[in-house]
Amino acid sequence: MDKILNQIELKKKLKKLKKEGKKIVFTNGCFDIIHTGHVRYLRESKRLGDILVVGLNSDISVKKIKPLRPINSENERAEVLASLEMVDFVTLFDEETPYNLIKLLQPDVLVKGGDWKIDEIVGADLVKEVYSLPYSEGFSTTGIIEKILQKYSIKKTDEQIIKKAKKTKFLILDVDGVLTSGGIVLDNENNELKIFNVRDGHGLVMLHKSGINIAVITGRYSKALERRMKELGITEVHQGTREKLKIFNEIVRKYKLKQEEISAMGDDIIDLSILSRVGLSVSPQDGHEEVKNRVDYVTEKKAGEGAVRELCDIILKSKGLLDKFIDEYKNL
Questions:
Q1: In DSSP terms, which residues pair with 173 in a beta bridge?
Q2: What are the pLDDT digits (tens) for 118-147?
Q3: N or C: which end of the chain has fewer CB within 10 A?
Q4: Residue 223: how many CB atoms within 10 A of its CB?
Q5: 332 — pLDDT class (breaks 50, 70, 90)
Q6: How far apart are CA 238 and CA 244, in angstroms?
Q7: Domain check: are 126 and 199 in the same one?
Q8: CA–CA separation, 182 vs 71, rounded Å?
C-alpha cells in the first residue's frame, strides 16, 4: 500500500507536503489489535492537522516493551492501520521509543494518549504543538485478549474440565486470595479478620455431603478461619505453613489418593507446588498471571466473590449431583 512507507521515503513525502502548507500530525503505538478506542483516538488526532502519520512499533520494538506481544505481525498491523480513512501514512521503527523517528520527520504536532503527561511525552522537546488526548474508557487490546481467554478458550476446554472434575474425590484450597479476596484486616489486638463468601461456604457443604473431602492449606494463621471451617465441617485445616507440598503429600498418603482424584485452587506462585500435581488445577479470575497461565481453569468469579462456589458447582455438575441438591431444596 502506498500509505506504508519506510522512514526515508516518508521524510521526502512530508517535506513536499509541508511546502504545500500541510500541517503534519504524528502519533505512535503498537496498535496490536485495532479496537474502537484506537479508532476514536486516531480520528481525534487527525483533527489536529491535515496529515496524520502513525509511527508503528515494529515486532522487535514491541517485544522490547511487551515480551508476550505482538499478537499480529508488523506487516498485518501496518496494513490494518493504513486501511483507516483518517491515517495518511504508516512507518515502522525498531527502537523502544519514537524519539529518533520524530527527530527525522519533524512533524508540526505530536499526540499521545491520556495516560501520558505532556512533559513526559517522548519527543515533546522536538515539536511545537503537543497534545495528550483522553482514551475512551473500557477499550484496550489487553481487555480484548482477556475476553478471548475467558469466553473462548475456557468454553473450548469445557469438555476436558468436566472430565477432570468428574474424577474429583478431594478438593484442596488456599485461603487468602481464594476463599477471601486476599485483603488482611488486623484489629487492635492483632486478631486477623477475614470475610468469607456465604455461597462459597454452601458449595463446600454440598461437596462434603456428596462424599468429597476438603482441605485448606494456608501460610497464615487465623482464628476466624478456624471458626469458619468448623462451621462448614471441614477438619483438614492446615494453617501457618509455608511447606504446602509437604502437607499435600501427607494428605495424598492419608487418603490414598491418585493425582487425577484431586482438584485444587490457588492464586499465587507459592500454590504451584500443589497445582502442578493435581488432576484439576484452578485459579480465581484475579489470581496471579503466572498461575492463571499454568492452570487448567480460570474462574469467571473473583476470589472471595464466588470463585470457590463456581468450582464446587463444576464438580457437582460433572458428577450429576447439582440437580439433586436443587430438587432437594425445591421440596423443602
A1: 216, 265
A2: 888 999 999 999 999 987 777 888 888 877
A3: C
A4: 12
A5: low
A6: 9
A7: no
A8: 32
Does residue 153 surpass a pLDDT of 60? no
Place of cell 481525534: 44
Q: What is the pTM of this model?
A: 0.55
Same domain, 166 and 112: no
Number of folded domains in the chain? 2
CA-to-CA separations, 254 to 170, 182, 250, 251, in angstroms, rounded: 12, 29, 6, 5
Residue 2 inside a domain? The answer is: no
CA distance 262 to 9: 62
* Strand 170-173 to 185-186 pairing: unpaired
Instruction: Please check whether residue 309 lies inside any domain of the structure.
Output: yes
For residues 127 and 165, membership in a common domain is answered with no
Burial (CB count within 10 angstroms: exposed 0-12, middle 13-18, buried 19+), residue 194? buried
User: How far apart are alpha carbons 235 and 255 in whole angstroms?
Assistant: 13
- Give the SS3 label for residue 31: coil
Q: Which residues contact 29 (CB under 8 A, 6 or more apart)?
A: 38, 54, 55, 56, 57, 113
- Decide if 205 is inside a domain: yes
Distance CA 4, CA 92 (A): 9
Q: Is 151 a domain residue?
A: no
Q: Which domain holds residue 81?
A: 7-142
Identify the helix (H) or strand (E) that includes residue 247: helix 244-255
Of 224, 261, 223, 264, the residue nearest 244 (C-alpha): 264
